[in-house]
Amino acid sequence: MAKVLVQITSGPEHATKAALGFLVARAALDEGHDVTVFLAADGVHFVRRPVVEALAGLGGGSLSDVVDAVKNGGATFYASKMSLGARGIPEEEAATLGAQMGTPNALVQLSIDADSTLSY
Question: What is the dotted CATH code of the domain comprising 3-119?
């Protein structure tokens, strides 16, 4: 079993690109890998349930279905504390996704610990 880090920095304006990140995370979980999803920059918008429910990736179906599958599949989520603050998103919203607060140092360590790092 490999450790896979998926970093999503694309936001709702690039729903298909962000959805690909979640789809890859789900695929890695389906293969039995240990998956961590780090939401940063505009990707932190995906801690907001109304945003996730309103979007679909081109050819990828409902974003909420994929996000739920990743969450329920056991992935660990981080949301950049700095990115949340810069976008006026309360940290409590990240907690609804089960996301831990992420820092640049945490992202560096997660990257070092991962066997593969993918960015979307």
Answer: 3.40.1260.10
